[in-house]
Design a protein that fits this description.
98 residues, flat
């Protein structure tokens, strides 16, 4: 998502940038608001922990990340997607886990 935003906003991405570097650049260029940047950072940090810690996370933490991803996807579609996009109601997390 961040790579697409950089391209859409015509912000040069130096070769070899990490996700944290892309987020920092988008925030510095005022493409991302503080609240949207924080959502991206939350998902990034959680993903890093899940990658490096075998038993990381609880079901409650997964629900929080799921809601965060929903918020980011909604924001992304409203800003970069179809102008006629209507936000679907969130699916109850319990239904997903069963």
């Amino acid at each position: 998502m961040t790579k697409y935003i950089l391209a859409f906003e015509e912000v040069d991405e130096p070769y070899g940038m990490s996700q944290v570097d892309r987020l920092r650049l988008l925030y510095q260029e005022q493409v991302l608001s503080r609240s949207i940047n924080e959502l991206f950072q939350m998902i990034r940090m959680s993903g890093n922990k899940a990658t490096h810690e075998a038993l990381y996370g609880t079901v409650e933490e997964a629900k929080i990340i799921h809601r965060t991803a929903y918020q980011l996807a909604t924001w992304y579609m409203e800003v970069y997607g179809d102008w006629n996009f209507e936000v679907p109601p969130p699916i109850k997390t319990q239904k997903i886990l069963n």
